[in-house]
Amino acid sequence: MGVRVDGEHAAAGFTTVAAAGGGWFWLGAASHGMVHVHVAGDRVDEMHWVTDLMLARGVVNFTGIDRRGWVWAGTDAGIVVFDGRVWRRLNTSDGVIWNDTMPNGFLADADGSVWIGTTGGLTQIKRPEALLQTAPIDLRITRVSLGGVALEPQSPPMPCGPNLFFNVHTSQLNYGKGSQSTKLHVRLRGLRDDWFEVPGHEVFLPALGPGKYTFEAVAIDLDHGQVSPVTPFSFEILPPWWRAVWFLRTVAIACLFSIVLVAVWNVRRGQERRRESERQRVEHEALVVRRDALTGLWNRAAILDTLSSEIRSCRAAGTSLAVAIIDIDHFKRINDTRGHLAGDEVLRTLGAKLRTRIRDGDALGRYGGEEFLLVMPGAVRQRPFVPLERLQGTIAEIPFTYAGITLRVTASFGVAWLSGGADTAEKLLSRADAALYNAKQAGRNCVEYAAAHTLQNRVDLYNWPTPLKFSGGPSARKKLPIVTSLYANRLVLPGGGRQGRRAAYSYPWHFYEALAPWGPWHQSPPSSRLPFFCDTLDPIRTRPPHLGMRRSNRPLESSIRSRQFSNQHI
């Protein structure tokens, strides 16, 4: 009759077997230790593999059972005995002639002794009970030092300091048998709670910080299945003064007092914070509403509000301001040939690229359809305006791709600068739009600038008591107490003036005597200047004023009232 033993560990087969009675058998596996099985009829109904490391992965050369019922197993590392409670190993340190046993090398004699066959000879164990009755492990801590200072079990706490190295010596682990399987395991509670094995009988730990510690040690004899009681040693390292209890309590009281002060301050500031939060929320909501959904730029209302605000700021600071209307060339053709989704992608891409290429402080928004409005505070009045020329040129270099198709896109720019104090956002945009129209008439893909209207000069009001009439001829200084001086080729009055070929600043007659007729205009005191507005900076410095006026084709005639004017930046 055959019995089959299944399982992954039984795949290599079995080399030995020993009957224990009652249907129980001990089987020695060819590659995975021993298994205890119970056979009922022709099948195995219960099976237990030996998990002890002395057998779990070894090759069993023999199995046997003596008259005491002890189980003996021969391995290549010694003899393993099970007395019904624990597994123990016997090897050369216990008197066995050799560790490597022979197959079927076991005989239980009638007198109770056991014969073991090894590759080095035959060994008889006459009294197995005496051999397996080992004394308990006597593990003792013999010496402890901390930072070179010896510690006793009742030593007072050590003050904190550098280089507090911890050193422990235990009793020797020989125990009279020369066993090599006894290991020392230790841990230092307060530093780490897991056990770790150390070689020999000495433990050295690096410098320790303040705290309470308990050193614990235990010895384990794997061959004889013995474990010593845990041997402890407790000690304490005091913290420095700034970590002492009294100091921490003082700090805690100070912190509590500070917390109370901060709480009072927070209560007082709570309303301000709530108002600020509400203001930020409103601003955020307004910001979301003021953004163009497609491009993420400012929408038309937002960019026009920005323009109005910048006009006020530039007038107050006396700085310049320019606007540019940017129009995508032939945008309708893109929508008609590629579809509106392609047009949306062009607008989205162009808006994102322009936003990264404009100057700091400039504002960009979607003006309408395929048009963008760029507001440039502080833009220098020059033609060409290099930043805009460069920006317009880079648009053609931007890759526009939709559905795998690359589109070439260009844009036309219409630029205008803020002029006099009477200039408004509507007039400024009207001039920029006219310049854009000129750019389209010029073939598109270019920058056109609106014509300037006034100078960047400051003029001052001179309070004349009555309306004045003058004509730009040699007799002007005889009829009126003023003399026309050298400047310009156009004169524009706030109420709408007339143009003349040569006209300029005028001085009260009593200042004329102190000035050379051909002297620079700025030699006159600021309070003596009349509020004329000029659009050029080409002074006529070489002739007296009456000679300049005599060459005029159309003498200038205007009516001036002092209440019509005020100080302005132009």
Describe this structure in words.
With 570 residues, this protein is an alpha+beta fold. It has 5 domains: 125 residues, 7 Propeller (Methylamine Dehydrogenase, Chain H); 102 residues, Sandwich (Immunoglobulin-like); 45 residues; 150 residues, Alpha-Beta Plaits (2-Layer Sandwich); 112 residues, no CATH class. Helices cover 24% and strands 30% of the residues. The chain has 10 helices and 35 strands. Strands 15, 16, 18, 19 and 20 form a 5-stranded antiparallel sheet that branches. Strand 18 and strand 19 form a beta hairpin. Helix 4 crosses helix 5. It is elongated, with a radius of gyration of 53 Å. The N and C termini lie far apart (122 Å). The C terminus is likely disordered.
Essential attributes:
Methylamine Dehydrogenase, Chain H, 5-stranded mixed β-sheet, disordered C terminus, 5-stranded antiparallel β-sheet, alpha+beta, 5 domains, elongated, 570 residues
Short description:
The chain is 24% helix and 30% strand. The chain has 570 residues and is an alpha+beta fold. It has five domains: 8-132, YVTN repeat-like/Quinoprotein amine dehydrogenase (Methylamine Dehydrogenase, Chain H, 7 Propeller), CATH 2.130.10; 141-242, Immunoglobulin-like (Sandwich); 245-289; 300-449, Alpha-Beta Plaits (2-Layer Sandwich); 458-569, no CATH class.
CATH topology tier name of the largest domain: Alpha-Beta Plaits
Alpha-beta content class: alpha+beta
Q: State the helicity in percent bands.
A: 10-25%
CATH C-level label of the largest domain: Alpha Beta
Low-confidence stretches: 175-179, 453-570
Within CATH, the superfamily of the largest domain carries the name Reverse transcriptase/Diguanylate cyclase domain
| Strand proportion | 25-35%
> What spatial form do the alpha-carbon principal axes imply?
elongated
Largest sheet data = 5 strands, antiparallel
CATH architecture of the largest domain: 2-Layer Sandwich
Q: Mind telling me the C-alpha Rg?
A: 53 Å
Number of helices: 10
Please report the total strand number as a whole number: 35
Mean pLDDT: 76
